[in-house]
Automatic annotation (TrEMBL):
Residues annotated as domain Peptidase M14: 43-316
SUPFAM superfamilies with a match to the protein in the record: Zn-dependent exopeptidases (SSF53187)
Record-level Gene Ontology MF annotations: hydrolase activity, acting on ester bonds; metallocarboxypeptidase activity; zinc ion binding
Gene: XCC2022
GO process terms (BP): proteolysis
Leader sequence residues: none
Assigned protein family: Belongs to the peptidase M14 family.
Cofactor or coenzyme needed: Zn(2+)
InterPro entries the UniProt entry points to: AstE_AspA_cat, Peptidase_M14
PROSITE patterns in the record: PEPTIDASE_M14
Gene3D superfamilies: Zn peptidases (3.40.630.10)
UniProt keyword list: Hydrolase, Metal-binding, Zinc
The protein's name in its UniProt record: Peptidase M14 domain-containing protein
Species this chain originates from: Photobacterium profundum (strain SS9)
């Protein structure tokens, strides 16, 4: 979605239209979805790509220098959707432990492949200083369907809390708890895409029976920190690292990114724990959520993956500098 047509989108929706000229095709405006609407939504989903072929096959070669751990499988299909994490081998309880997650929203491709690229190219440069554990694709069903929800119309990235309704979130939390270590930093890799406005946020509004209020998709990379623990210098270090790879998202005309005021260039804050976000489920000192914009005409897939890697290394370099 281009910046210039955002107001038109808002006006069209208030006239009973979305970007495609139609009200969201499932449900009744103003009414929350029940089982019938959720089933109708699920019936419309189709497999677009293979998790086993595109993700798991890239993890197998890593076993030569890293530990590959299966920490569960999704009940939707336990054969198709095993859940994997990768751990550095030089595990030492005296070292800080770093958690990297990707694909919490399965459709956000560079989060998955950026995490894998970090494992392929950079992890050994940091494994002496840190214990590193990476869960590259938390939501493999979402990866295949190219969606942010799971089959139950639940958003895993709003479900990181006790008795989570999301299998994906619950499995990751249980796995991290089983490590028996404190997490020093958590870098959660995400994307903001044009489809957030053309599909996912309209679907969310329809599911919850509320009015869809269109927003501007920022053109560039940005971060989401924690309102309760912002760690501004840490976030700035990541921004400076990513700046070498891709452009940083500017604020909109109101000084915001996705409706939130900037705390510094390229950084906004959310109440991550209260919202059940992945980056907020540990009590780590340093936490951030990356947001790459893959639909920008200024980037390609490789640059998006490289931006995720640069975010991780920028975070780790900062932590090393203050240890």
């Amino acid at each position: 979605m281009l910046f210039s047509n955002c107001n038109a989108v808002k006006n069209d929706y208030k006239k009973g239209k979305t970007m495609t000229g139609l009200v969201y095709p499932i449900g009744t405006p103003g009414k929350k979805w029940e089982a019938e609407e959720k089933a109708a939504w699920l019936a419309k989903q189709t497999i677009e790509r293979s998790y086993l072929e595109e993700v798991v096959t890239k993890l197998e070669p890593l076993k030569k220098s890293l530990e590959l751990v299966q920490y569960g499988a999704l009940s939707y299909d336990v054969e198709k959707y095993p859940l994997y994490a990768v751990k550095s081998l030089e595990w030492d309880l005296s070292k800080p432990t770093i958690l990297v997650t990707g694909g919490v929203h399965g459709y956000e491709t560079s989060g998955v492949h950026g995490a894998i690229k970090f494992l392929e190219t950079e992890v050994q440069n940091y494994s002496r200083a840190f214990n590193i554990v990476v869960a590259p694709c938390v939501s493999p069903w979402g990866y295949e369907i190219i969606n942010r929800w799971n089959p139950n119309t639940v958003d895993p990235n709003r479900s990181f809390y006790k008795d989570s309704p999301s299998e994906e979130s619950a499995a990751l939390m249980q796995f991290v708890a089983s490590l028996g270590v404190s997490i020093t930093a958590h870098i959660d890799l995400h994307e903001t895409t044009d489809s957030d406005e053309s599909e996912f946020r309209p679907a969310l509004a329809a599911r919850d029976g509320i009015e869809y209020d269109a927003d501007i998709i920022p053109d560039g990379f940005y971060l989401v920190g924690d309102t309760e623990n912002p760690m501004d210098a840490f976030q700035k270090s990541i921004i400076e690292s990513v700046r070498k790879v891709t452009h940083i998202a500017p604020a909109d005309a109101e000084g915001n990114i996705i409706g939130e005021p900037l705390t510094q260039e390229g950084v906004i804050n959310y109440a991550t724990k209260a919202l059940g976000l992945c980056s907020g489920f540990t009590d780590c000192t340093y936490a951030t959520t990356t947001e790459v914009y893959p639909d920008s005409p200024l980037v390609n897939d490789d640059e998006c993956n490289n931006a995720q890697v640069a975010a991780i290394t920028g975070a780790l370099n900062y932590i090393k500098s203050v240890m």
